[in-house]
Amino acid sequence: MLKSLKLKERLLIGYAIPVVIYLGLAGLVYGTAQQIFQTFKEVERVQSVIVGANDLSDKSQGMIRGFRGYLAVENPRFLEEYQTASAEFGVALEAIRGLVVDPSQQQRLVELDSLKRQYESQTFQMISLLQNNQRTEALEIFNRGQATQFVEQFDRLNQEFAISEENLLQQQTTRATESLQNLITLVILGSLVLIVSAVTIALWIAGGVARSINQASSAIASSSTEIGATIEQQERTATQQATSVNETTTTMDELGASSRQVAEQAEASVAGAKRALLLTQGGAKAVESTLEGMEELKQRVSAIAEQIVLLSEQTGQIGNISALVSDLANQTNILALNAAVEAVRAGEHGKGFAVVASEIRKLADQSKKSAEKINTLVREIQASINSTVMVTEEGTKTVEEGVQIAQKTADAFTGVAEAVNDVVLNNQQIFLNIKQQAIAVQQVVEAMNALNLGAKETAGGISQARMGTQKLSEAALDLKAIV
C-alpha cells in the first residue's frame, strides 16, 4: 500500500508523522506542566497557611503578654496591647479559614477559636475585677491556673496545626519534584523518538523517491523515440490543418458580413415598431382623457338633475303655501263678511268696525288673486321643470352611451398597444438574437484566425518539440546515471 503512494503523499506523511509525535509530546508536556503549576499553587497556599499559623501564634503571645503585664502593673498600655492582639488574632484566623481545605485542620481552627473565646472570657472577668479595685480576687482566679491551661491547649493545637501544614508542604514539594523529573524524562524520550522517527521516515522517502525517479527516467528514455516519430506525423498533419483553417476563415468572414446586414435591418424594424407603439399609446391617452371628460360631464348632468328635482320639490312646497294662502283669504273674506253683518246690526256703534271689515275683505280678495297668480306660475314652472328633467335624463343616457363607446375605443387602443408592444418585444428579441449571432460569428472568425495562427505556430512548435524530445531522452539517461 505504501509503495502505491505518490511522491506528494509520501512527503505529506513524512512531515505529518513527526508533527503528530511533536503534538502528542507537547500535549503531555502541557498536561505535566499544568500539574506542576497546580502543585506550586498548592505549595503557595500551604506556605500562606503556615505564615498565618505563625501569625496566630504571635498574636496569641501578644494577648498573653498584654494580659499578664496588665495583671502585674495595671498599666492601660498593656490592656491596649491585649485588645489589639485579640482583634488581630480574629482577623488572622478568618484569613486562614479561607485558605485551609483539610477538614481536620478546619476543626483545629474551630478549636483554636473556641479556646481563644474561653481565654477572653476568663481574662475579661479578671480585668473587670482589676478595674473595680478587686486585685486580690483577680489574682485568686489567675492562680487557679485555668488561663494557663487555655494557653497550653492553644499552644498544643497551634503546634499540631503547623506540623500538619508543614507535612502537607513537604508532600506537595515532593510531588512537584517528581513531576519535574517526569517532565524532563518525557521531554528527553520524546525528543529521541522524534529524531529516530524523522530519520527513519526521511530514509524511507528518499528510497522511494530514488526508485520512482529511476523508473520514470527509464520510461522517459524508452518513450522519447516513439514521441519523436509521432511528432513528425503531427507536423505534416498540422500543415494540412493550417491550409483548411485558412479556407474556413474566408467563409466565416462572408457569413459575418451577412449577419451584420441582417442585424441592421432588424434594428430598423425595432425602431419602426417603437414609433407605432408611441402613437398607439398617445391615442390610448387621448381616449382616456375623453373618458375622464365624459365621466365629469355625467357627474355634472347628474348634479343638475338632482338640483332640478330639488327645485321641483321646492316649487311644490310654494304651491302648497299659495293654496294655503288662498284658503286663508277665503276664510278671511267670510269672517270680514260676518263682521260687516254684525256691524250693520250694531247700528251707529258698528260703522267703524264695518269700514275695517270692508278693508279686510278687499285685502282678502287681493291675497286670493295673488295666490291664484302664484299657483298659475307654479304650474308653469313645474311644467318647465318636468320638460327639463326629461331633457336631462336624455342627456344622461347620451353621456352614458358616449362613455361606453369611449370605453370600447379605449379597450381597442389597449389591445392595439399590447399587440404593438408584443411586436416591439419580438423585434427586439429577434434583433438581440441576430446581434448575438453576429457577435458569435465574429468570435468564430477571430477563433478561426487564432486557430490558423496556432496551426502555423504548432507546425513550427512541433519541429522544436522533436528537438526537445531528443534532449529529453538525453536528460533521462543522465538522470538515470545520477540516481
UniProtKB/TrEMBL annotation:
Record Gene3D superfamilies: Methyl-accepting chemotaxis protein
Residue ranges constituting the Methyl-accepting transducer domain according to the UniProt record: 216-452
Any single GO CC term annotated in Swiss-Prot or TrEMBL for this entry: membrane
Gene Ontology MF annotations: transmembrane signaling receptor activity
Segments crossing the lipid bilayer: 12-33, 183-206
Keywords: Membrane, Transducer, Transmembrane, Transmembrane helix
Cross-referenced PROSITE patterns: CHEMOTAXIS_TRANSDUC_2 (PS50111)
An example Gene Ontology biological process: chemotaxis
Family: Belongs to the methyl-accepting chemotaxis (MCP) protein family.
Protein's recorded name: Chemotaxis protein
Source organism per UniProt: Desertifilum tharense IPPAS B-1220
